[in-house]
Recover the amino acids of this structure.
């Protein structure tokens, strides 16, 4: 009915968070460059970039799911945009679906992203260790 | 069926991305994110539907299956259109920019 709204809202929050994290990381990077003369760059993926992975997953998935809802006539281009919102009984069902299916969608995507971040952290650690052993 | 079509699209786009990695000039990563995101979300949808219908979930009516297949293919087509827009706007190879700024002799 409108389950895609939950991951879409998370996508908006993630987009804002990714921007803020990127700004913060750029600032701290610039400060570190001023303080240090020469450092050997260790392989590291910034957290802002990792947050963008989640953002991309959420926006991509929400876009295609929104299309599915248009296909089924659940989303319309006129007010109130969600056909279920026009009827109180349907609206209650829609909210229930958002609270169950929608939240589970957002949680699963976030969990998969968490696994990706974990795996990349392990790979980065291994690369750093290999670099240290070489020196 | 929609989930199945999207998962296949996600796998194909991931293979294409891997084949060209680390170079991502064709922006295959955008396709990967989009199709994997949708696949995960439709997976949740399928689990909820399975919980409701049980074994009946695996024997849909031919008309429903055809509609779902049509929807899946349309979703993949929409994904490709979005990817094409991203590719042309970002223009990593500078092809669009070169074509627009090209002077006639």
């Amino acid at each position: 009915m409108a389950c895609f709204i939950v991951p879409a809202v998370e996508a908006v929050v993630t987009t804002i968070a990714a921007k803020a994290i990127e700004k913060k990381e750029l600032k701290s990077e610039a400060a570190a460059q001023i303080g240090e003369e020469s450092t050997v760059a260790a392989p590291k993926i910034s957290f802002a970039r990792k947050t963008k992975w989640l953002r991309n997953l959420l926006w991509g998935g929400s876009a295609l799911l929104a299309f599915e809802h248009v296909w089924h006539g659940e989303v319309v281009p006129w007010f109130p945009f969600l056909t279920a919102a026009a009827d109180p009984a349907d609206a209650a069902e829609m909210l229930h679906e958002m609270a169950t299916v929608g939240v589970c969608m957002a949680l699963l995507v976030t969990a998969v992203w968490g696994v990706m971040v974990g795996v990349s952290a392990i790979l980065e650690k291994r690369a750093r260790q290999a670099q240290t052993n070489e020196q | 069926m929609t989930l199945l079509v999207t998962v296949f699209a996600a796998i194909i786009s991931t293979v294409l991305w891997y084949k060209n990695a680390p170079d991502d000039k064709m922006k295959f990563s955008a396709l990967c994110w989009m199709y994997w995101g949708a696949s995960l979300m439709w997976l949740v949808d399928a689990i909820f539907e399975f919980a409701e219908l049980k074994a009946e979930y695996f024997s849909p009516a031919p008309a429903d299956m055809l509609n779902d297949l049509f929807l899946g293919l349309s979703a993949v087509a929409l994904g490709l259109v979005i990817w094409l827009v991203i590719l042309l706007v970002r223009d990593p190879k500078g092809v669009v920019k070169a074509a627009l700024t090209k002077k006639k002799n």
